Amino acid sequence: MSTISVERGQRRLAISQVLFTVAGVVLAGMFTGVFFVVDKREPELWYWLLMGSAAASLVYSCVAGGWGIEKLDLEHKHFDRQAIAVLLGFIFLVASLFFLGKEKADQQTKTIGQIQRDLGAISTNLKRLGEELGKAQQDQSAQLAELKKLRVDVEKLKHQPFPKKKSK
Predict the structure, then answer these.
(1) Could you write out the three-class secondary structure of the chain?
(2) From CA 138, how far away is CA 104, in angstroms rounded?
(3) Which of 79, 81, 28, 31 is nearest to 57 (CA)?
(4) 96: closest CA among 139, 55, 50, 134?
(5) Angle 78-96/45-70 helices, nearest 10 degrees?
(6) What is the pLDDT of residues 58-92, one digit of tens each?
(7) 59/57 Cα distance (integer angstroms)
(8) Quick count: other Cβ atoms within 10 Å of Cβ 23?
């Protein structure tokens, strides 16, 4: 490995510091975003695999940058690896957004759904009870009509004389 100039070393160090900052900010944002996703969505397995890969790439970029700073005066590939790892972390992070999964139903939506189901059951019961009441009213009307007819027959019988028995 050959040595490099101080000026080139300083440029590498500045770029590495920027990559450290970017990786740290993205990691913090990722972990904050995970809480939102877990709260509001049902992420798929691919989401977790890609987020884990993104986090691992970003952490590796920090490690590779540290190795590069350790050997700042020598020619090596650690800073290149740091930059590639940050890029891969971004790619994995963006890819994970396609696997967020379906949205969770919130408690209010669940409660409204349950109320609607309950109202449907009550409506069905009310309709059935209305039909039973209508039938009972028809039966009662028929019985009242029969009762009136029997009363009329009884009145007629009251006014008719009893037939006398014939003797032999």
Answers:
(1) CCECCHHHHHHHHHHHHHHHHHHHHHHHHHHHHHHHHHHHEECCHHHHHHHHHHHHHHHHHHHHHHHHHHCCCECCCHHHHHHHHHHHHHHHHHHHHHHCCEECCCHHHHHHHHHHHHHHHHHHHHHHHHHHHHHHHHHHHHHHHHHHHHHHHHHHHHHCCCCCCCCC
(2) 51
(3) 81
(4) 50
(5) 160
(6) 999 989 888 887 777 667 787 888 889 999 999 99
(7) 5
(8) 23
Place of tokens 């109202």: 119
| Residue whose tokens read 């986090």 | 55
Q: Would you say 31 and 59 are in contact if contact means Cβ atoms under 8 Å apart? A: no
> Which residue is associated with the tokens 């904050």?
32
Write down the pTM of the prediction.
0.58
